[in-house]
Amino acid sequence: xxxxxxxxxxxxxxxxxxxxxxxxxxxxxxxxxxxxxxxxxxxxxxxxxxxxxxxxxxxxxxxxxxxxxxxxxxxxxxxxxxxxxxxxxxxxxxxxxxxxxxxxxxxxxxxxxxxxxxxxxxxxxxxxxxxxxxxxxxxxxxxxxxxxxxxxxxxxxxxxxxxxxxxxxxxxxxxxxxxxxxxxxxxxxxxxxxxxxxxxxxxxxxxxxxxxxxxxxxxxxxxxxxxxxxxxxxxxxxxxxxxxxxxxxxxxxxxxxxxxxxxxxxxxxxxxxxxxxxxxxxxxxxxxxxxxxxxxxxxxxxxxxxxxxxxx
Length: 312
What we know:
This protein is α/β, with parallel strands linked by helices. The protein has helices spanning 66-75, 87-95, 125-128, 140-150, 168-182, 199-215, 222-232, 237-243, 245-252, 256-262; strands at residues 16-20, 23-27, 36-41, 55-61, 80-83, 101-106, 109-110, 132-136, 159-163, 185-190, 218-220, 272-275, 278-281.
């Protein structure tokens, strides 16, 4: 087949697909124009070839564990979470005027000198309520930065949220509403592990697509169709996460309790959304137009653009 250079996206005519449990099936022509286009980037590197202006909402998934941890922090009252690329960026935030908590990992272990690691079980209300958290992880926070770098300038990019198994249903509703209101599609971005495909993120994406399909008919792109088919073969959630390569690493390091926590599906209504440089709980007390007084790495208030990302 000749490649005309046109990126995948909604087709103007022809049969559509509707997501169903265990895959996708053709949909009759009537009502097909109401199907929502949805696609999945199995790695952030795919963003180089995806025009984000086709999407009204984007979800980043790093189910083990960054996006689960972000949900936990905001659910327990954190003011916001700032995803940064490197420990150096995080330390620069600490040097700014406003006190922050530093959270993150390298090699799944807490970074020396940081207040918190990347275990969602550390982000309890007594520790994080009312606090701004600056988070850097090997894969998840970099994925957010790559989405931001790939988006159009001028504040016209898609809604950006964090999704995991624990907030899958709430995240799907939020994505659906934002995409439909903008008359554009939904993109799910899997963070992967050190640049490699992650089975656990693809599994989480399949659960998110199932929840999206409950909102209405979908027109899946090729990445979404692949994820649906993987989801049809999936084991129960805990077994699916535990059998992945990264899951095995976490188990060897003693994070079995994290695995149990991360494997729970749709138990949280918290949807972290990117707001003026900070992930905040959608509809929560800190979800205002521009969080006042939040410092950037140079001590100035955030104006909606993150500091440039760099290698970990």
